[in-house]
Each structure stands twice: as C-alpha cells, then as structure tokens.
Amino acid sequence: MKRLQILSLMILIGVGVACSKKECCTDIDLSSSTKSITALGYIDAPLNMGINVNAPYLIVNNKEDYDTLVSGTCHPNIDFSKYQLIIGYFASQRRVLYFNYKYYSSCESNFYKLFISPKYASSEENEEATVYFYQILVPNDATIDFLKVTFISHI
After folding, report:
1. Which of 11, 66, 104, 132 matches a 20 to 30 Å C-alpha distance to 45?
2. Range 30-61 burial, b when 16+ CB lie within 10 A, else e
3. Tens-digit pLDDT profile for residues 92-135
4. 126, part of any domain
5. Is residue 125 part of a domain?
6. Nearest to 53 by CA among 86, 102, 7, 27
7. Number of domains forming the structure of the chain
8. Which of 27, 29, 38, 28 is nearest to 136 (CA)?
9. Does the global pTM surpass 0.70?
10. In angstroms, rounded to a whole number, what is the distance separating the alpha carbons of residues 115 and 149?
11. Which residues contact 83 (CB under 8 A, 6 or more apart)?
C-alpha cells in the first residue's frame, strides 16, 4: 500500500512539473515588430530586386551579403543594425497579390517560426507555376539559428 502511495505521489509531481514547464514554454508573437519591404515604400520590390536565392529562404544580416544577393533596379536601403532580412520564394499556379506574415520566437533558444499566407488574386490556376519572392524584415536583436517557414491558407 505504501508503494502505491509513493508511486501515486511521484506521478502527481511529474504531471505537475510537466504542466508548469509546458505553460512556461509558449511562443512569443513578434509579428508587430516585423516589416515588409513594401512597407518601407518600395512597392515594386518583390518584382524588381533581382534576388538570387537558391535555397527555400536566406537570412541576410549585413549589407555586404545584401549587396551581393540583390542586383535588380530596386535596392531598398535597410538598416541592418535594426533588422535582418528573410528572403525566400514560393511557387504557385495562382496569381499572388501579396503575403501576410506571422513571426514567432519559440521557447527554444534561437528558434523562430515564420508563417506565410499568400493572398491570391483569384482561384483561377495558370498552366505553369510562377515563382513569387517574399521579403520580410525581422528584428536584429537575436541570432536565428533555426527558422521554420510554413505556408498556410490564411492568417
């Protein structure tokens, strides 16, 4: 009987610790501290930046890398002391008007989540997919060791 009481007590303590740890570990929504390139006044930036991206996304945190990657007619001035630039692409058979973003800091150290929701012009599909680039400025107050980018239907 004593063993059953001890086992029950250990289970209760374990559940209590697990619950309190889980409650402490919540993602922080950083979306309000992000900016799109178009918000800086560069309306045609997604079309005219001439970005050379070979990976699903790149994180640019200095002017030298930025100048190497961006070669188009539109070259927005970014303050890299305040922001990091995430550049990526998305292929769709539907015409994308713009992207909505949600950006979160995970409870894990230097782990971030970026949710991207394309806003489509219509439900019509083209025969060939078009590649659309997204650019988002995120705060330069932490090192991004891992970024999970997820495309979702709506935010």
Report:
1. 104
2. bbeebbbbeebebeebbeebebeeeeebbbbb
3. 888 888 888 889 888 777 788 999 898 888 888 887 888 887 88
4. yes
5. yes
6. 86
7. 1
8. 38
9. no
10. 6
11. 35, 137, 138, 139, 140
